[in-house]
């Protein structure tokens, strides 16, 4: 997740698996953590909620009810850490579920066969 190129390849894989919303949510949370302007934080938190948390969203991520409750409380006064619990839950889901499938995929095997300089820092 640290390498932009590796994230892109992993995102392409998730898109093929119809679960791209997980990495998009994770990236949106990372972006929110870097924000310090309260108005921008509130706007970004609202967008993240509408795009990934709302049950009406086509890109809704799968979260348990406990985490949804925490988010709903946090949305009263959003901060850069509003979605921390949800982000961890989605990261864990990707780490345990999607990433192992990615490592065993033809897409990753092709990537692994590239010469070393081409894939420097390519871990997702």
UniProtKB/TrEMBL annotation:
Top-level division of the source organism's lineage: Eukaryota
Please list every transmembrane segment annotated in the UniProt record, as residue ranges: none
Q: What is this protein called?
A: RGS domain-containing protein
What Pfam families does this protein map onto?
RGS
Q: Where is the RGS domain?
A: 1-112
The record's annotation in SMART domains points to:
RGS
Per the UniProt entry, what species is this protein from, by scientific name?
Answer: Tetranychus urticae
SUPFAM superfamilies, sorted: Regulator of G-protein signaling, RGS (SSF48097)
Q: Which PANTHER family match?
A: DOUBLE HIT, ISOFORM B, REGULATOR OF G PROTEIN SIGNALING
